[in-house]
Amino acid sequence: MAATSLTTITIGSSASIGSKAIPLSRSKCFGVSFNSQNYLKSFSGLKAASSISCESEASFLGKESSAALRNSFAPKAGKQNLRHQYYLQPQASSSKVAILGAAGGIGQPLALLIKMSPLVSALHLYDIANVKGVAADLSHCNTPAQVLDFTGTSELANSLKGVDVVVIPAGVPRKPGMTRDDLFNINANIVKTLVEAVADNCPDAFIHIISNPVNSTVPIAVEVLRRKGVYDPKKVFGVTTLDVVRANTFVAQKKNLRLIDVDVPVVGGHAGITILPLLSRTKPSVSFTDEEVEELTVRIQNAGTEVVEAKAGAGSATLSMAYAAARFVESSLRALDGDTDVYECAYVQSELTELPFFASRVKIGKKGIEAVISSDLQGLTEYEEKALEALKPELKASIEKGVAFAQKQTVTA
Ligand SMILES: NC(=O)c1ccc[n+]([C@@H]2O[C@H](COP(=O)([O-])OP(=O)(O)OC[C@H]3O[C@@H](n4cnc5c(N)ncnc54)[C@H](O)[C@@H]3O)[C@@H](O)[C@H]2O)c1
């Protein structure tokens, strides 16, 4: 795998980072989300005099997203002969992104990855503590996004003014032996308070909810927005990208496929058996034995626990989560920038099943979700059909728990 994650950059002969000219022919290309051979003109993270050629088999985004990104920039460079060549204009758009919970295990690496995006003009970092240092540190990276820090509830409103995308990883992570639902009471209150502030200060923003249990925190957020009269179902997303990232990785390993080629839609919810990878929909088409389906499905569903146990008390998935969340942010920014070919899985208000919220692939556009993709649920295997029916009662209970929490708060208030 090490060989496939190596990236080669060739920039004429050199690029400058700070004041040093650094030969890049054997360097790694960090966070640049392109497969195959790509040419980037003046990528903002590296002050290159001429175009950068970047050969990579690793991708920040995955194949479909990379293709979409290529397409989104292709018109600016002309489409001829650009199958593997395109030009990325830094600051193609000027989106503002806020991270609430930015000093945490997920928040910090997520902030770094978003700081590297050429689509971000301002990055607002909010937390109840320790965010000043994170912002000072990040602000020294020579990428265009301006980094601003906001500490404590008195600065929450200002952190949200004029923001296009709000990402919420604030909360308490899972500890060994804890289920996602054990986190409920603490994180439910945090999400409620933060989303109230979003409703008051940037009601048109895309809202990405990472704080667990996502199956319940998304319905809580929706109730809060409804109560405030600003709910737009197209703009509230439970971030389930990590399930897709894990599914793609595990399937590629198991079937010895190129990582960049693999795409597995993951539907349902974001906890235990509610996570349903649709292995029969894997691209490229690949066959699995019944044992492989069972083993992969269970591994994808329990991958969070794998990390929690390996960290042995020091938190839950943070780096892979930050990577997955950054991919989802980048997709949203591309959609806001006018890319008409952006698809991601997310946990959203849905009519695909009888449940009011459900994770599936969605098409994202400038104004949020343009379509919920139903075709993935057609022609499921018997195993997937059974798993889908089995997850519904648990997901329903988690949704109802979230709604009941939010309604109880309203009555109390
Ligand atoms: N959606 C997913 O796939 C996924 C994956 C992993 C973790 N998570 C969840 O993400 C959350 C964060 O995990 P972490 O590992 O970064 O935890 P962490 O404890 O390292 O960081 C949480 C951060 O939130 C901050 N915070 C707490 N209350 C806040 C408030 N009221 N306002 C703003 N900030 C506040 C804390 O100060 C801290 O910096 C947890 O709920 C965890 O379960 C979700």
From TrEMBL:
EC number: 1.1.1.37
EC class name: oxidoreductase
InterPro entries, sorted: Lactate/malate_DH_C, Lactate/malate_DH_N, Lactate_DH/Glyco_Ohase_4_C, Malate_DH_AS, Malate_DH_type1, NAD(P)-bd_dom_sf
GO annotation terms (biological process): malate metabolic process; tricarboxylic acid cycle
Top-level taxonomic group: Eukaryota
Subunit and partners: Homodimer.
Name of this chain's protein: malate dehydrogenase
